[in-house]
Amino acid sequence: MGLQGFERRLERLVEGTFAKAFRTGLEPVEIGRKIARALDTARVLGVKGGWVVPNDIVVYLSPPDLERFHSYTDMLARELADAAREHARDERYQFLGPVTVAILEDDDLKTGQLQVIAEIVEGKFLRVGAVVLPDGRRVPLGDEPVVVGRLPDCAIPIGDPQASRRHAEIRPHGDGFVVADQGSMNGTMVNGRPIGEHRLEDGDVIGIGSTSLRFEAS
After folding, report:
1. How far is CA 185 from CA 155, 162, 167, in A?
2. Angle between helices 2-15 and 73-91 (to 10 degrees)
3. How far is the C-alpha of 62 from the C-alpha of 31, rounded, in Å?
4. What is the tens place of the pLDDT at every residue in 42-85?
5. Cβ-based neighbours of 174, under 8 Å, separated by 6 or more
6. Which of 204, 186, 198 is nearest to 132 (CA)?
7. Are 145 and 157 a contacting pair, CB within 8 Å?
8. DSSP assigned state of 57
9. What is the tens place of the pLDDT at every residue in 155-180?
10. Phi and psi of 163, rounded to 5°?
11. Maximum Cα–Cα distance for the chain, whole Å?
């Protein structure tokens, strides 16, 4: 089921943003399937239970294929990383560090061929998490608290007029993270419910005014 969701996401990608670029030849869905298989086959049982899978992924393409993807490489890498996270959530996999996808050239490959090298690389922090902003950007979380609010010096500044200057704080707690309201005027929501402090779970949506931030444990 996870692999099917992975493929559906990439199929939507081909039908949308990259429709013109991928009408012929190697398509992102093929790359995605290879990444999914790499995660599935390289999984190991974690110390605390559950499967740990590679988070450092390198995709090697032939020179003609890389040239064809040239204008879309960065965006494609981001989408493939998001799809890998989605596959991991579906399969209840865990990562030990941030998920990265690099797309590189391999002169030994022929057109249509690809190779995926995936490794488990432990992050520099004790826990893994990120906040996904409304525009799709990701703010990695680490061992230091992160403040969300209207002040420009906040780690996550938002221009929402309903947000307080220092509205909420996301901080490490145990092996995960909590979000805590900082006495804001309009309060902080998680999944539509007001909170004082809340332990974040993968996929939780933090509401600050009309702004929604998504927490990802992967």
Report:
1. 20, 8, 8
2. 160
3. 13
4. 999 987 778 999 999 999 999 999 998 888 888 889 889 988 98
5. none
6. 204
7. no
8. E
9. 999 999 999 999 999 999 988 999 99
10. -90, 145
11. 60
